[in-house]
Amino acid sequence: MRIAVAQITSGADKAENLQLVADYARRAAEQNAQVVVFPEATMQGFGTGRLDTQAESPQGPFASEVETLAQDLGITIVLGMFSPADQVERDNKTINRIDNLAIVRGQATAEYRKIHTYDAFGYRESDTVRPGEQLCTFELFDVTFGIATCFDIRFPEQFRQLARDGAEVILVPASWNDGEDKLRQWRLLSSARALDSTAFVVACGQAKPQDDRPKEAPTGIGYSRVLDPTGVVLAEAGADPELLVVDIDPEQVAKVRKTLPVL
């Protein structure tokens, strides 16, 4: 199976971000990738403005354009977007919260709402994002995929449960926060989650932005990675926008789980 990892930098404009998706998806299809994974917040980058004003239903125009693109190219697209969720009171203010979604469009259709919101290092994503409640797996080409999003990667039990639910490949759209020691943690956590779950992990992050964005916001550091079921790195990007194309063998999962039965 050939998987592409589209490490992009999303901005504030949905139309421009959708054009980025089209450009990278087309390049992935030209290299015969069957799946292309984009980052969390592909619809609108963190730190570029209010998310609730651009949030859409997963049946809305943005997701519909992604579906059309996927069908036209014959590729399955996985990316992060935002949809309206609920209202909460914070500091005597009413806040329109959103769902942080990862959507799958093309040869399979699925939606995952991020469970573990980024409430750490001085940032409170739960003020503006409603935490999800359900794990997500889907079938594609006789392979079971799982999805987790960014901060979820710090919670090994989510990955282990996805594996118990049959996931052989776990896709992780992300927008990792930059800062001291964060790259080391990103690398360590992604490798550990592959080994915990004895599954392939495809972790696609936002590239490191070149414009001025709030330092506390999880705007991306790059270094997207693909790991095998023993945690070995098969490919890693740098900090800048990049397209990785990697061949994986899902049958390796059963072999590893037979010799390393940790689930």
TrEMBL record:
Recorded GO MF terms: 2-oxoglutaramate amidase activity
Q: Which domain of life is it from?
A: Bacteria
Report the coiled-coil segments: none
**Which top EC class applies here?**
hydrolase
Asked if the keyword Transmembrane helix belongs to this entry, the reply reads no
Q: Name one Pfam family in it.
A: CN_hydrolase
**PANTHER family xrefs:** DEAMINATED GLUTATHIONE AMIDASE, NITRILASE-RELATED
Name of protein: 2-oxoglutaramate amidase
Protein's organism: Corynebacterium pseudopelargi
